């Protein structure tokens, strides 16, 4: 019984894995599946009317809506030519359904740029093991998650002057959502590593390093224990590294990496790693510079870019209390403006945020101050008026 | 449960009669809990402990620890054994039978660093030991050392890691060329065992809370099972506070404020990463003790750093990690007094900063460092 079951599982797994990587999946996803399929207009042209950019916004759960309000306030005050298309997709608040997901996906495909909060995953699952956030990522094939870990001038932590980039593969690895209970009390969870995706993320990392003028890329792995899985990842990284002779390539084991990050984080430059280690190192590095409230991040696919915070937590304890720190979301919004080629507005927003932090008078609770989110946003808006003269 | 009530009633009775002191409760508890209590070698008040010096700097630091214990007049007798893998009947790799017999008899072991030769054909020695004695819990107390400054002060936490299954099950295969699948195994039995050990440890060592670290929002079934078992164990130990936290939240908060954590219990991979992270907070693997607890009362305490072949034989090694592991061993055996004195001597020597080995920032030899600690321990009486 177990042999045939295993064979069946392997067969379905192969199809699934092949499907996940193949072009057919993306075609499937782009077909409108909603009931009103017949009423859907043919695909809209990219939104560029009147030089106003349309951006999809998904506030998410927890403090997401508050942070999005902050972004909107700052954009309005700065006359930023961006228009938001809001969608409220949430698993915990029962505002999720297949149709909603489709709407969000269609909107994202039209606009190609999105800004989102964290869509929280409840621990109990009803049927599907993959959460909405994971499905969004898979359908848009957002394979690369980039987190910028930069120390904020004016806010001192135990390690100052940090400048790291953490690149994490976001679609496979431990987050495959392939789990099953073979026998009662014995659960298997599959971690999938493919050569294609490992090569893709490695190439992304090296291209990113080249574009931003970085010197070193370090691959993080646990190939001494997971010899085949992480071994394949490491091998792919090494193969891609040979195509970039100007960039130094190293590798380090995950537990040693964590230890080195708390003792001497300056030895790292760009880090690239599979999914779970990325989650750990993202949050660790965010903690080094000041927490989840100050680190921006973004997710890229071949066609789309989604901007969000670096360390993704819904932070439900802060909902409604007006204490969340909007720095991360504002910096991420500034990165989004740069992506849209609105250099001037991007610099205006990020300079204003950095100026407020440096002055140190208005700080939210996580940075040791007593101000509310509203106070911080007002301070940023005030600083927006001092526009740098070009 | 009825068994627990009966056990605690009997313990209270024994305590009232003065037959056991409060310190020895944990040892007695351990003895009563096991199905087949093995007689520990306890002759005329002297405990026999299996010592595995290891490779590289192993022999030097083992000698250092033996000297310090002698100076402290600790009632420990050492039985040295060697563990190099040999091929037993049937082609299976195993540890030498005299080492196994010694461990089974003594139950307590102290191990130095073992090297894993690449391409030797046999699995790593640590893995072999773990499998032979079913060492299911890895305990690493991380306490900031006063004389050794790191950016993180006041760290005082314990990481308890499930050591037999999880992501390190070793089950991997290539499905098609270019696609590899690695299996993470979570079983009810192992999760229950580690959860109960964590709470037992917290109770025996006067720890206030236990935090389960998991990623049940992503790995809903596997970590969900682990979490359920932790919650069930929490029900049985109402005097210890239980919280649960996501792995990424723990990492985020650990580097900002490590004082908020007490005892952490988690599956294998997260435990590996977090325990090394916590070791980094207090100063690295050279000063971190570690203990492995197995079934039937077996416990092996070890130093987790490498064999350091470049400084082997040069009298430059730092015995702190092995010494603190030995102190952990004394506490496990109930010899709290000796443990406290040796630990205090070690910390005082480091705080003094006069005689320090190279990795701690000084330039003394290992033997000088050991002699300083011996002197302090003797003067403490």
Structure explained in plain terms:
The complex is a heterodimer of chains A (about 400) and B (about 375). With about 400 residues, chain A is of the alpha/beta class. Chain A has two domains: about 200 residues, Isopropylmalate Dehydrogenase (3-Layer(aba) Sandwich), CATH 3.40.718.10; about 100 residues, Nucleotidyltransferase, domain 5 (2-Layer Sandwich), CATH 3.30.420. Chain A has twelve helices and twelve strands. In chain A, the strands form two sheets. In chain A, strands 2-1-3-12-11-4-5-10-8-9 form a ten-stranded mixed beta sheet, sandwiched between helices. A two-stranded antiparallel sheet of chain A has the order 6-7. Chain A starts with a helix and ends in a 6-residue tail after the last helix. About 5% of the residues of chain A have low confidence. Chain B has about 375 residues and is an alpha/beta fold. Chain B is about 40% helix and about 20% strand. Chain B contains twelve helices and 15 strands. In chain B, the strands form three sheets. In chain B, strands 1, 2, 3, 6, 7, 8, 11, 12, 13, 14 and 15 form an eleven-stranded mixed beta sheet that branches. Chain B has a two-stranded antiparallel sheet with strand order 4-5. In chain B, strands 9-10 form a two-stranded antiparallel ribbon. In chain B, helix 3 crosses helix 10 and helix 11 crosses helix 12. The longest helix of chain B is centred in the middle third of the chain and has 17 residues. The N and C termini of chain B lie far apart (about 45 Å). At the A-B interface, helix 1, strand 6, strand 7, helix 7 and helix 8 of A face strand 9, strand 10, helix 7, helix 8 and helix 9 of B. Strand 7 of chain A pairs antiparallel with strand 10 of chain B. Chain A: One of its GO terms (biological process) is isocitrate metabolic process. Chain A: This is Isocitrate dehydrogenase [NAD] subunit, mitochondrial. Chain A: Keywords: Mitochondrion, Transit peptide, Tricarboxylic acid cycle.
